[in-house]
Amino acid sequence: MSALSGAAATGVGTGTAHGVEHVAADLFSSIAGGDPGPLGLAQTSHRTDLAVSALAVRDRPSLLRLARWAADADSPVVRVNAAGVGAKTRSELVEDVPVLLARDADVRRLYVRAVAVRVGASPTALAAELRNARDAGARSCAAHLLVRDNAPHARHALASALRDEPVRENVRAYALLLNGDSPCM
Question: Given this model, what pLDDT does residue 16 score?
């Protein structure tokens, strides 16, 4: 696990494609082995989550572990990393991520911050992120960030995304946000 320790020190998954694949393989091995520890070393990047999700989607026990860890791991970093991987799997876990983001303030804060750093804060960038087909969690976080800018174009982007959003809980969240309510519990 030395690759994970080194990656955690520099930000997991921020290096080369080969480095991301290596870290993802190590993370997946720990997930498959039932060890959440490596997921708690540092918040993983979007690229790392995508690479881990490509491995996890082929292993149902690993998907179930990720769902359990996202819901109830002691560490918010483990929870956000498990949710981030789950949000990118195109499995039934995708529906759970917006619910988790609504009820877990620590996970929401970490995920929103990661989306803001990766995408930026401009309404145009956030509106584009609402169309990110590979990350249901990022779409939810982009919606939260977008409503902070109560400009008509921001509301229009959210209303447009509402019509096409495939994840039921994101649809609910977008509708609540457009009505001035919070989907957060």
Answer: 65
